[in-house]
Amino acid sequence: LPGGLRALVQTGHRSLSSCIDPSLGLNEEQKEFQKVAFDFAAREMAPNMAEWDQKELFPVDVMRKAAQLGFGGVYVQTDVGGSGLSRLDTSVIFEALATGCTSTTAYMSIHNMCAWMIDSFGNEEQRHKFCPPLCTMEKFASYCLTEPGSGSDAASLLTSAKKQGDHYILNGSKAFISGGGESDIYVVMCRTGGPGPKGISCVVVEKGTPGLSFGKKEKKVGWNSQPTRAVIFEDCAVPLANRIGDEGQGFLIAVKGLNGGRINIASCSLGAAHASVILTRDHLKVRKQFGEPLASNQYLQFMLADMATRLVAARLMIRNAAVALQEERKEAVALCSMAKLFATDECFAICNQALQMHGGYGYLKDYAVQQYMRDSRVHQILEGSNEVMRMLISRSLLQE
């Protein structure tokens, strides 16, 4: 195992000091599935995360094992194979799993978001067709919103879907799609009407559909256990029966999916930061300089204290936003945006500081802190960049 990670894997969440214990405030049921997630992360993910990263492996078998524990459709309804858990429950699970491999857990969070969108906005036939194999991860899902020319301005997307008989004919492309080329189900936002958000609809495109193809596999700084490719549509015929919701409802579906997605991806950042704090604490105890353990240096003690404080603050913000979203409170969108902004910024800072406090060892791929840092960096960009989060928060404030 990478240096310093062995102790974390062997002890899991039990190695944590009580002040940063992620089980604080949870009920007994939540503590139980949190333990299941931590144990799975330690047993199945952490021992493999470096290899998955270096060889760019998509760990299908391990994710299917996670699905057997209910992690393939965490907040999908139980009648189609989901676990039927809350947004808070989901955050707790993804935080724990991300300590084992942040990149893989982040993909699983996107897959879960896609399954939830179909479950929440699809008709009964669609729910029972698509959700069960997604919940078991027999099939994998990707979310297709971003385009080469529309990232933050998602409402300006150009991928067209024109009716022809009982099909839509899709033309266009999507960029930076996690799972692209490997996933079986693509939840695609496309333009069925005029310009702006009201002209956008949501359709499910299945792998193997004629006219669906993929770009080259992107080489990334992190997130290497999941492939990223462009998804390309060239006269791609998709049955009208695969439209999720009504025509023109796609942008609403996309935004509602992203509100939860932001909590999920922030929770993945929590897991990376959580592991980094523990690895740093243990490194300071064993590494000696000038005849003393680094842990005896007050400056480093204070840095570790700041990291722990940021971690707990981020966790509380995320859990508060998760409850607000579950209860459909009017301030939920702003709180999800705040949680994503604060947690992904602060947790990346924690991971980056952890690398610094490991000194030269932190820059070696034999040490896990560098991977947590690389895998969490992109969380400040995707699911709506943090600049967009600031815009959403300020808009909420100014409209009051």
From TrEMBL:
InterPro entries: Acyl-CoA_DH_CS, Acyl-CoA_Oxase/DH_mid-dom, Acyl-CoA_Oxase/DH_mid-dom_sf, AcylCo_DH-like_C, AcylCo_DH/oxidase_C, AcylCoA_DH/ox_N, AcylCoA_DH/ox_N_sf, AcylCoA_DH/oxidase_NM_dom_sf. GO terms for biological process: branched-chain amino acid catabolic process; lipid metabolic process. The keyword Chaperone does not apply. Residues 27-138 form the Acyl-CoA dehydrogenase/oxidase N-terminal domain. Pathway: Amino-acid degradation; L-valine degradation. It catalyses: propanoyl-CoA + oxidized [electron-transfer flavoprotein] + H(+) = acryloyl-CoA + reduced [electron-transfer flavoprotein]; (2S)-2-methylbutanoyl-CoA + oxidized [electron-transfer flavoprotein] + H(+) = (2E)-2-methylbut-2-enoyl-CoA + reduced [electron-transfer flavoprotein]; 2-methylpropanoyl-CoA + oxidized [electron-transfer flavoprotein] + H(+) = 2-methylpropenoyl-CoA + reduced [electron-transfer flavoprotein]. GO terms for molecular function: flavin adenine dinucleotide binding; short-chain 2-methyl fatty acyl-CoA dehydrogenase activity. Its cofactor is FAD. It is found in: Mitochondrion. Residues 143-236 form the Acyl-CoA oxidase/dehydrogenase middle domain. This is Isobutyryl-CoA dehydrogenase, mitochondrial. It comes from Macaca mulatta.
